[in-house]
Amino acid sequence: MAIPPDFRTLPFETARVADSGRYVGRSTYWKLYVVENLIRVVVHSVLSIQVGPAWWNVAVDSNTNGNVQKVMRNYASQPSRSLPGRHKIYYLYLPDLMKIISTNSHLFRPIIPDIDSWIVRFEQIRLPRNIVGHMNWLNSSDKTLIDEIYTDLKILMRKLLNSGVALDIP
CA–CA distance from 41 to each of 44, 90, 135, 153 (Å)? Predict the structure, then answer.
């Protein structure tokens, strides 16, 4: 598949906008979807092992929990709309997930000894994730970074499974 030009660099045509959107979705958005949801699975699984099923009440600060409650009320006020997921973790954004991991890194370290390097790497994709989340183009460096984190996170997931960690979808 040929890479279409970024529609913003050419005279306006609706088809160029559509081509750009399809390209961004096919090339990068889906990898960020995988990364963000695998992070949710890791957070939920590790904290369920280390704290128990009620880990949310222990590991999530009151401000973050309050924000989640507000968003949940917003969704509840529009019951015909799709929900982010069945667990509160699906109402969090990447920075919120990083905050939970950072604050509770002592609980992650026995299972993921290099958790601090993962925190740094996840922080590095925060801004590129926002660019893609708004369906805009990444530069080659950011695209490579996301590709590498996607690949390395899949390797981490295999290591966790092979070491007997029960990965549980929240």
Answer: 5, 10, 25, 12
DSSP string, 66-124: HHHHHHHHHHHT-TTSPPS-SSGGGG--HHHHHHHHHHTHHHHTTTSTTHHHHHHHHHH
How many domains would you assign to the chain? 1
* pTM > 0.85: yes
User: Is the distance from CB of 49 to CB of 166 less than 8 angstroms?
Assistant: yes
Least confident of 23-27, 93-97, 109-113: 23-27
Domain coverage including residue 55:
23-161
User: Does residue 48 belong to any structural domain of this protein?
Assistant: yes
CB contact at 8 A, 45 and 156: no
Judge whether 47 lies within some domain.
yes
Average pLDDT over residues 104-133: 96
Residue 11 near residue 127 (C-beta atoms within 8 A): no
In this structure, is residue 18 part of a structural domain? no
> Does residue 75 form part of some domain?
yes
